[in-house]
Amino acid sequence: MGANQLVIIFLLGIVLTNASHYRGGSLSWSIHENTTNGSSSTVLVRITQRHSYRKTYSSNTFCNQTTIATGGMIGDGSVTCLGDCSGISSNGSVYTIPTFSTNVPCTDFNDDFDYSSGEGSVDVIVPRDVRFTYAVQSCCWISLLEGSGSWSLALVVDTHTRRNGKLNNSPKTASNPVVQVQLGRTHTIPIPMADTDGDALRCRWGNTTQECGSICVPKGQLQAFPCQLTYEATTLGYEGIALVIEDYDPITNETLSSIPLQFLIRIVDQTQVTVLPDLNYTGSPILQACTVPPVYVGDRHHGACIGVASNTTITERIVVKVPCNESSTTITDILTVSPSGMIKSPITVDLNNNDTYIMFIEWTPLPEQYGIHQLCFTPVDSIGQNGQQVCYTFQVDVGAPQFINGSMTPKGLVLRNQALWSISTDRNIVPPHRQ
Predict the structure, then answer these.
(1) Are 154 and 80 in contact (CB under 8 A)?
(2) What is the pLDDT of residues 52-102, one digit of tens each?
């Protein structure tokens, strides 16, 4: 580029605020088959929680690479049971639903968006055949376009035996804490949903103070399945999103459990690119900036489900691209929300394509990390544009469905033109689909 050529690239109207510190989160629960005993009056329930905070708020919410490498914790508050949670009788014994901290190992952070995010699990012993609600409640969200006060996330846990004779596990979901969109455009935000039991799933808006605190007003149009939010960006600022994911019995429509997902939408002005010409310039052509947001072009589709055994290392390649040929725009970051212990490599340029960038992730899940985990990532380019979030689901130590002996029909002699056969499995099988 010649000395007299000036290219100015900027994002207009980015709203920055330091009003307070919460950036969203989610909770879920699971019951490992090896921790149950049919004759016991109690069951061990694993509660998994993810929370995101303003990184610079305090030492309790600060995170950097050293924090992650050393297993440092972030957190603010407690997870408490709502309602009548003490004096619960079961088989002649009396139990109290325990309270525990929101402190979790930090897994991800970003300086530009000023957030720290972490995920961790706590095992609690609770009675069988009870249904109760855990909640995380405190103050405050950052300054929002609607509702900037207290936050509340509610998790419904149910330890009753299902119609199939098994105990339930809740769904699992995740999202980057800040989803950036451009003013004046309609955006589609896919929300990952996964369930170890293969249950039918749906999403909805939070609609009670317990479920959504001060951000209960719906923002945009929500599709229940696959879960997808369509949001029209009309005003600069931040929106608080409060969703509820449910697994349910498709025959009775009974909700088996519900989990929260809350995050922020950040609305910024559209990217402006100004090139000031120099009529005397005779050098090489000046590369223009790409005003189309970066895209994911990786090996797996959004919502891909990946099985992995504990104590086994899995490596995945994340590939993103600047969708303009020979532009001056580059990929500067890939925002992540990841399980504890996942390692991310530096971002490198594809040797075969200068517009394509690669990041590797490596993860060796521990035995205590059984169940569902999600990785969500968002590419960011050099002029501040964010691509669409993409998520993978990892199933740790979740066995494949087993055929039930004697369940095949028809049996014995059959007609020559018999075209329909069936066999049952010990768990639901969910057909693959693109989200």
Answers:
(1) no
(2) 999 999 999 999 999 999 999 999 999 999 987 887 776 667 889 999 999
Kindly write down the DSSP assignment for every residue of 397-412, as one continuous string: S-PPP-BPTT--BS-S
CA-based nearest residue to 115, from 54, 49, 25, 178? 54
Q: Give the lowest-confidence range in 14-18, 24-28, 31-35, 51-55.
A: 14-18
- Helices and strands, number each (H, E), in the chain: 2, 29
Which of 390, 401, 377, 225 is CA-nearest to residue 307? 401
Sequence letter at residue 396: V
DSSP label of 141: B
Name the pTM for this structure.
0.85
What's the CA gap between 418 and 421, in Å, rounded? 8
Q: Which residue has the tokens 């010649």?
A: 2
Using DSSP's 3-state secondary structure scheme, residue 67 falls into: helix
| pLDDT tens readout for residues 241-264 | 999 999 999 999 999 999 999 999
Calculate the CA 355 to chain-centre distance.
27
